[in-house]
Amino acid sequence: MKIITAILTIVAACLWAGGIGAETLVIPGTGACEAALKGLAAAFNDQNPGHEVIIPLSIGSGRAIKLAGADEAMLGRIARPLKEKETGFGLKYLVFARDAVIFAVGNKVTITGLTVTQLSDIFSGKITDWQEVGGDRGIIRVIIREPGDGSLLVIQKHFEPFKNLTFDPKSKMVFRDHDMPELLGKYHNAIGWLTNSTITESPIKALAVDQVFPTPANLREGRYKLLVDYALVYKEKRLSKLARRFIEFIFSDAGKAVLSKYGLIPVNLS
Amino acid sequence: MKLKNSLAFPIIFILIVVAFSSLFIGYYFNINLLTKTLEERDQDKNRDIIYIINSIIKIEINKLSALTKVLKENNELAKGLADYAGPGGDIKPLQQTMDRLYANLDTQIFLVTDRQGMVVYRANEPSVRGDDHNVWGMDEALAGEDVMTASMGPHGFAIRSLAPISRANKIYGVLILGNRFDDHFAKKIADATKTQITIGRVRSILASSLPPDQRPFDPAIVERCILEKRPIFIEDHQQQRTFMYSPLEVVDETICLIIETESAKVAALLKEKKRHLLLTILIIFILVTVIGSALTLYLISPLKRLRAKAQHAIREFSGEELAPEAGGNEIEALSQSFDLMLSSINQYIKKIEKAEETLRFNERFLASIFDSIQDGLSILDTNHEVIRVNPFMERQFSQAMPLVGKKCYEVFHGSDQPCEVCAARLTMETGQAGFKEETRVGERGEILNWFEIRIFPLMDAATGKVSGVIEHIRDMTQQKQAEEALHRSEEQLRQSQKMEAVGCLAGGVAHDFNNILTAIIGYVELLRLKFKYDDPHQKDLQEIQSAAERAASLTSQLLAFSRKQIFSPKVLNLNNLVMNLDKMLRRLLSEDIELVTIPGAKLGMVMADPGQIEQVVINLVVNARDAMPQGGVITIETGNVILDATYARSHLEVNPGPYVMVAVGDTGRGMDEVSQGRIFEPFFTTKEMGKGTGLGLSTVHGIVKQSGGHISVYSEPGHGTNFKVYLPRLSQSEEKEAAAPSKCPLHRGSETILLVEDEDMVRHVARRLLEMNGYTVLEASSGHDALSVSQQTPGRIHLMLTDVVMPGISGGETAELLKAQRPEIKVLFMSGHTENSIVHHGVLNPGVAFLQKPFKHELLVSKVREVLDGPSTLH
């Protein structure tokens, strides 16, 4: 009886210890790098059984920043820089990858590239038909992102006309990264912008901007300037061992490979 | 007591804290519960609203989709459109079809476009044509896709279902059905959900059930809620309204439903509830505080009262005032008070116990005094009821009945009525002490007891009134008896003194008379020797001698009476003496007198002079004879008796102890008390003149006293007389010490005798008698003379015959002095006295020879011879 009790005690202790040792890391945030991070998480989890990194559905960069700042999330994934008012949370901003912001169109659009001006005119509603920009006749369905969207910020940063652009009232606004490719796939004459990693198997195509396609080479060499940083925000002292290890994994070769696989440009840990 | 130290303070404080805590907790939980409940209800309502709206929209979408699917297959519609699209197309069939179809539809948007997307027919607006209905999905529909879209259009935001209308695989146009998200729609939803709603996009309001000036819309909140994909609640404090911004996906658009929630109402309600609850709590708190405080004070007040009572008890028990406590609440103060009270009570109890012990001791002491008093004490109440008596009273009066609880007249007087003259009642009435003497009389009327009763009023210490009496009963019986005995003793003493005086007188007379008689008898004997026996003078001389002998007998009686007679005691058995006297006594009695002798068994021995005892018996028998002139019975009885202390107390001269009694009783006329008191007086007689000398009983009395005995007489007139003579009984050892009687042979002799006698007649006659018997006689008239004669006599002097009492030195002294000169000389004393140095209380010293005067010639010569022949007698 005593032996059985001892064994059960040891087993319970092990389970308890195992329970204590097993960690779960949830990284809420933007949907922009959601797919890539899910890939990273899957790879990391495979390598670290007993632990789990979870990448939940997008709640947006802003929410992730708030959660991390309120210590409700150990790590947050964002696709934009911290705003001035967000710097007060004391968060560290760690870019782990870059993604190209591309302008994409539905599969009925015949053009392959636009200028910035054209893009701005299209998105402002000045240009309403593809025929006006050299394509087949078709009403341009403009799909935009919400104000403050990271990719929009990148566009606005690099494309002057977009800084104070008033978008076409008839445009559809999507709020999640995966909505854009979905609508672009639905509306064949639609145009919008999204990150490169968001394009999966959607029948959309990227446009060249000022004749610069968002190719890996152009991206690498900086000719295509529309790049959005994917970063992790966190408070250093709150990082768990698992979080630290996941971050290390991201910057590891394996992590970079995963990032590359998702079309992201890995960065080195700085 | 300081307030802060009062028990009320912490209790009330705790009460307040508990009440406050309870109420606060209750308030908190209540409010939380209420808030939660209301919020949940509100949230549930909001969710329900969103759900309903979602459902409505979905239903709408589904309806539109289903209708579109159905209508697009409508041949009439397709034909109408196809016909219209043809050359010279007629719109009427299409219109009719459209109208007919629309009549059964519940959609706002029902139009058909041509292949270019131009509106061919619009329901309700049939005249509007050529409208470019450039809506989202038109291209896709013209491309042959069924598209559901939500987008802004010419007339606002609407859900549209687009479907190509084809016929024979040729698309002729697009059928568009849809419903706008307009105010009507909003109102419809509002009616369905009973909630005012506003529908908006990031930049604009699409529809609202509210008037324009009341429509809530915050683009930032809209954007936030859409971005965060969660409801956001906004309060309009100014208007006290709350709104829920909730994202809603409508096909491929995300819009924002702005619902006025009841949160404001809930909040207001909560606020109101809070206010009411706070007010209620405050009231309850105040009530609890007040009631609790009052109750606390009410509950504490008994403690204070208890403490006050404890203080009172302390003062009462110890006389001390409770020292003010240094701090402490009521319980502590009460505890302290109780401790002190207990201490005081303990001390008081100890005092009481001590006092009770002292009281019990005093009671016992008083009771012992009460009971120890050899006099009687009785306490009566005002009803004459005996309350308490002491043992003396119990012994005296409780034989017939118990005393306590009985009436005094019942107990002490055997009466059932109060005494007519009652000293106790008088004392009760007057409060003055009283005195009375009472006697207790026996059945034959004899006085058994004399009592002196002193009565004292018993005062009630509380009222000062007489509550009874204390009777002090002194038994004067013994005193009376002692007084009587003393009186008798004094009488006896006077009698004895009288008799002593008479005895002395008689003794003195007898002594001198004896000397005269000695001479007379001596000379008569000498004369008779000179005459022949038949000489006529012999008769005369015989008469003279007889007379002289009678005179000598008389002097002998006188000496016996006066106890001057020389007492020669011997161990004597009175039975033998009486038996020896029996013959002689019978000769003294007449024939009509019976003599009965009753000897006692195992009679003890006495030390007495046999002759004297014989004389006593003879005198008593003679006296008895003389008391029975008509005859009777004389009884002589002997026996061993014990005269105890009680007898001795009433007879002063008696020493308690064993005695031998000889009693002589007669059946004669008896004597009265007066006579009994005088019978032992010399010369007292009840006989006729000349019938008695009156010395017989006095002689008996003298002899008995001289023998150390006691005589008593019991007589009653007409009932005879009984004389009892008690002589001390010898112990067995004393009997053995009795000396054998000595013989006294009669011899002539030739020794030299020194005759010392101051009386010349006696000396001369003695000399002549001695010389007649051959002795040589030397005379001396005094002791000194004797010594002188002895010194002058060279030869032996064999015997000194000397008188005891002489002028100058006595015979004893002379003998002592002569013994120094002549140690071998023998001495014979002679005297008519007993008060001399050699005779102590009439008893000769052992070994001393003595010759009582008057003596006969024969007695003189025989005694001289006896002494000369015996050993030296002077020690």
List segments of chain B where confidence is low: pLDDT < 50 over at least 5 consecutive residues. Answer: 739-746, 834-838
Going by helix content, strand content and strand pairing, the class of chain B is alpha+beta
CATH architecture classification of the domain at 567-736 in chain B: 2-Layer Sandwich
Contiguous uncertain segments of 5+ residues of chain A? none
In terms of DSSP E residues, the strand content of chain A is 15-25%
Counted beta strands of chain A: 12
| Fraction of residues in H or I helices of chain B | 40-55%
Mean pLDDT of chain B: 82
Question: What would you call the shape of chain A?
Answer: elongated
- N-to-C order of helices and strands of chain A: HEHEHEEEHEHEHEEEHEHHE
CATH class call of the domain at 567-736 in chain B: Alpha Beta
N- and C-termini, Cα separation of chain B: 110 Å
Chain-averaged pLDDT of chain A: 86
* Strands in their spatial order, largest beta sheet of chain B: 2-1-5-4-3
Q: Helical region count of chain B?
A: 23
**Sheet with most strands of chain A:** 8 strands, mixed
- Rg on CA atoms of chain B, Å: 82 Å
Textual characterization of the structure:
The complex is a heterodimer of chains A (270) and B (875). In chain A, the strands form three sheets. In chain A, strands 3, 4, 6, 7, 8, 9, 11 and 12 form an eight-stranded mixed β-sheet that branches. Chain A has a two-stranded parallel ribbon with strand order 1-2. Chain A has two domains: 24-99 and 227-266, Periplasmic binding protein-like II (D-Maltodextrin-Binding Protein, domain 2, 3-Layer(aba) Sandwich); 100-221, 3-Layer(aba) Sandwich (D-Maltodextrin-Binding Protein, domain 2), CATH 3.40.190.10. Chain A is of the alpha/beta class and 270 residues long. Chain A has helices at residues 2-21, 34-47, 61-69, 116-124, 150-158, 179-186, 216-221, 241-250, 253-261; strands at residues 24-26, 52-54, 75-78, 92-105, 113-114, 141-145, 172-174, 190-195, 205-206, 208-209, 227-234, 265-266. Helices cover 35% and strands 20% of the residues of chain A. Chain A is elongated, with a radius of gyration of 22 Å. Chain B is of the alpha+beta class. Among the domains of chain B are: 73-180, 2-Layer Sandwich (Beta-Lactamase), CATH 3.30.450.20; 184-261, Beta-Lactamase; 373-475, 2-Layer Sandwich (Beta-Lactamase), CATH 3.30.450; 567-736, Histidine kinase-like ATPase, C-terminal domain (Heat Shock Protein 90); 752-869, Rossmann fold, CATH 3.40.50. Helices cover 48% and strands 22% of the residues of chain B. Chain B has 23 helices and 29 strands. In chain B, helix 1 (8-72) packs antiparallel against helix 7, helix 2 runs antiparallel to helix 3 and helix 12 (477-530) packs across helix 20 (760-772). Chain B is rod-shaped. Chain A binds chain B through residues 59-60, 62-63, 108, 138-139, 141, 146-148, 169-170, 172-175, 179, 182-183, 186-189, and chain B through 134, 136-140, 143, 147, 151-152, 201-204, 223-224, 226-229, 252-254.
